[in-house]
Every structure is written in structure tokens, then in C-alpha cells.
Design the sequence.
């Protein structure tokens, strides 16, 4: 009760009596509307607003209130979840960036999740793995999009790192736009058919008064050449880092089978799961991958039970921690990882950084990834072309001298401090 009264006092001090009165009215109206909806018939008519809310629940604005500024600034990362299954790739990158920015600003890191309560041990695991020690204790806040009871305090000087177009859209109404850094790691329009979601996504991508931080120059060039001039004006790009303490080849027994890795995410359409298993099936049939010599590993999420040509059952790896994933990557000889978007995606780079030879696909301006590693082979998005690329990859992987030479000459960055250094320094001077 005292906490609510203090929040009301802070809101009144910042916004005045009239704004406080309106806020109270809105809360009462929302409660009455919720009560009315729950007692009504399931087939009753719904207002446009009700239909909209139901369709776009994840866009529910953050429920914020203002508090007086204090001595310690905050960097808040707004994301869906930081569960162990969510931390690979993009979310992990957002966490690393936000932690380094918070340290540079002598600020506190706050994790705001929208779909699941944060698991602090997961944050500790990632930061300790990358050798990042925060200057201040981490804060956690569960701001579920389906909950209208939580409240999120905001003060002058707060910064918000958003991790998707929907978390950006939810953050925009409740905080100053100049405080938002949208960490964009894919052309998110490509997640959708040409419908309402795509239109709303593009509208967010065209925001002209927030900052954009783009994962890879490839993606930056794609976005800026596709009409998003605001990103050219208000954005910058970085190349991801793969520290050798985490990503490196692991020692294997001479008698051990060679290992093949397929990035298997059937519920993420852009990863082309079904094309991938078709390619593997053909590669087995043509003896490109001989199961007597190769262990086939499907790595991802929601992988169905599957049997390949000749009755071969692959190994499935799901729900790995980051360190377990890195350990596995270091044992791989050849990988297949598809991404039907302009971004190279993380698994091909993770594997190349770990000593593997990897086949991935071309898409738009993503035609050649040899600048990252000569052990990365790009092919057209067509079954036979990918099988032939796998044939080349198997041959290269067997040539230990050339494979190791390519690995030693990798162009992948190895230090996140270096990858984000200039960007964070510039931001610390501007913000």
C-alpha cells in the first residue's frame, strides 16, 4: 500500500494533478472492462479495440510511471525471455551489449522480460562465461504483456535496449524515444506473410527518432538499400565476436566418428527445416554422408522424431546451455545451417569459429561469407545445389591441413569489448 502511494506521489510530482486523475480513471475503466468481458458470453460482440488487443497482445505498451532521478543510471534490456532456450544468438548478444554499456556508463543493468520471469542464474552463466563483471547488481522485472497489474518505474537518464520490433513497439509509448536503442539482428519483416504483422513491423522499422544498432554490415547494407533511410541516418552496425576461450576445436578420439551438425528448428520457418532434412536424406543416399562414418546431430528446438534413409536415427540435442552448445560445436566436422534471410545467422559463424566446415545458403546480398572464414561455403537455396555444397564441405573437412589453415585465417572477431568498443564510447558521449 505504501509502495502504491509513493508511486502515485512520484507520478503526481512529474505529471501533475490532471494527469494523475486521468491515470486513475484509466485504471478504473480497464478494471470495469475486464470484469464486463469476463462475465459476458464468449460469442458476444467485441469492440475494435478488444479485437485489436487480442490479435496483437505482445504489443501491449509497457505500463510505466515516473520517479525522481537518482545518482545511478540504468540500462534496461526489454526482451521476451532469458530462459536457457532463449539465450542463444540474438538475446545473448543483446545481454552482452547492454552489460558492457551499463559498465561504461557506471549504470545498473535491468532485465525486463515480457513472456517469462527471468532466471537470474542464466544471466550469471552468460556474463561469467564471457568474463563480464557488472559494477552494480542486476535488477529484474517481469512486465508480462498479458498482465495489466505490474508497473515499471522510469526515471530521467534511463536507457532502453529493445530486442525486436514488438518489444520496441511496446516500449515506444512509455519512455522518451531518444532513450531507445533498437538492437536489430534480422530483417524482421521477413518473419511474416504480407499482412498486418508485416505492416506493423515495417512501421516500427521506419521510426525516425530512435537509435538502431544492426548486427552485421550485411544486414545494415540490406536494410539501408531497401528504403530504410532512417536506419542509415540513425543507425550503425557491428560484427559479432567469438572469443577463443569459448569457441575452439575440441580434441576427439581417433576412433570417433566424424560429426555432422544440422541446425534444426521446425517452428522457425526461416531456418528451412524441411529443405534441410531433404538435403540430408539425399546426402545419405548419395553416400556424401555415410552413417557408418558420420554421426548426424540435429541441434535446435522442438525436433520431431525422424528416421533417415536406411533407417538411420540422428542424435538430437535440445535445450543446451551456452557452454554445452559451445562444447558440442567444437566437436563438429561439417555443418549445415540454413537461414532464408539476409543475415548470416549465428550457427554458421559459431561452427566456423570452432573449426568446422559449414554449408549455408545465399540470400539477397548474402552471396559469399568467405570474409568471415574460408571454411564457410554458400550455395543456392535448392536441394541438389546444397547437396553438392555438402560434398565439397566433406572433402574440405577431410583435408586437415587446408581446413586448419582456413581456420587460423578466420576473419571473425574474437572480443566483444572490441566489437562494441567504438559504438559504446560514442553512445556514452551522446547519452
Sequence:
Amino acid at each position: 500500500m505504501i509502495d502504491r502511494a509513493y508511486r502515485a506521489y512520484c507520478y503526481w510530482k512529474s505529471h501533475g494533478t490532471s494527469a494523475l486523475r486521468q491515470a486513475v480513471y484509466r485504471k478504473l475503466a480497464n478494471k470495469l472492462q475486464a470484469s464486463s468481458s469476463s462475465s459476458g458470453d464468449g460469442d458476444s460482440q467485441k469492440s475494435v479495440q478488444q479485437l485489436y488487443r487480442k490479435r496483437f497482445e505482445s504489443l501491449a505498451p509497457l505500463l510505466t510511471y515516473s520517479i525522481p532521478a537518482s545518482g545511478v543510471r540504468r540500462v534496461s534490456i526489454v526482451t521476451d525471455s532469458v530462459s536457457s532456450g532463449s539465450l542463444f544468438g540474438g538475446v545473448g548478444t543483446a545481454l552482452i551489449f547492454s552489460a558492457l554499456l551499463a559498465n561504461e556508463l557506471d549504470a545498473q543493468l535491468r532485465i525486463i522480460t515480457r513472456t517469462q520471469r527471468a532466471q537470474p542464474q542464466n544471466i550469471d552463466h552468460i556474463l561469467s562465461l564471457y568474463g563480464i563483471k557488472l559494477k552494480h547488481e542486476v535488477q529484474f522485472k517481469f512486465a508480462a504483456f498479458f498482465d495489466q497489474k505490474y508497473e515499471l518505474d522510469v526515471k530521467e537518464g534511463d536507457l532502453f535496449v529493445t530486442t525486436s520490433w514488438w518489444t520496441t513497439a511496446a516500449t515506444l509509448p512509455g519512455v522518451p524515444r531518444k532513450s531507445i536503442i533498437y538492437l536489430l539482428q534480422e530483417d524482421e519483416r521477413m518473419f511474416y506473410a504480407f499482412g498486418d504483422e508485416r505492416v506493423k513491423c515495417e512501421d516500427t522499422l521506419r521510426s525516425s527518432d530512435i537509435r538502431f544498432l544492426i548486427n552485421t554490415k550485411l544486414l545494415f547494407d540490406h536494410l539501408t538499400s531497401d528504403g530504410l533511410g532512417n536506419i542509415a541516418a540513425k543507425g550503425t552496425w557491428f560484427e559479432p565476436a567469438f572469443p577463443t576461450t569459448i569457441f575452439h576445436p575440441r580434441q576427439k578420439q581417433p576412433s570417433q566418428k566424424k560429426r555432422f551438425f544440422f541446425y534444426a528448428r521446425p517452428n522457425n520457418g526461416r531456418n528451412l527445416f524441411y529443405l534441410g532434412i531433404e538435403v540430408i536424406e539425399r546426402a545419405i543416399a548419395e553416400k556424401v554422408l555415410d552413417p557408418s562414418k558420420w554421426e548426424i546431430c540435429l541441434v535446435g528446438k522442438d525436433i520431431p522424431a525422424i528416421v533417415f534413409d536406411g533407417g538411420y536415427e540422428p542424435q538430437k540435442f535440445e535445450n543446451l546451455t551456452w557452454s554445452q552448445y559451445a562444447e558440442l560445436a567444437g566437436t563438429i566436422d561439417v555443418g549445415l545451417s540454413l537461414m532464408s534471410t539476409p543475415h548470416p545467422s549465428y550457427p554458421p559463424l559459431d561452427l566456423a569459429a570452432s573449426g568446422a566446415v559449414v554449408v549455408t545458403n545465399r540470400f539477397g546480398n548474402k552471396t559469399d561469407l568467405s570474409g568471415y572464414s574460408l571454411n564457410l561455403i554458400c550455395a543456392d537455396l535448392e536441394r541438389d545445389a546444397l547437396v553438392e555444397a555438402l560434398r565439397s564441405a566433406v572433402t574440405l573437412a577431410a583435408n586437415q591441413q587446408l581446413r586448419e589453415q582456413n581456420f587460423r585465417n578466420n576473419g571473425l572477431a574474437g572480443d566483444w569489448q572490441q566489437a562494441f568498443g567504438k559504438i559504446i564510447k560514442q553512445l556514452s558521449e551522446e547519452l
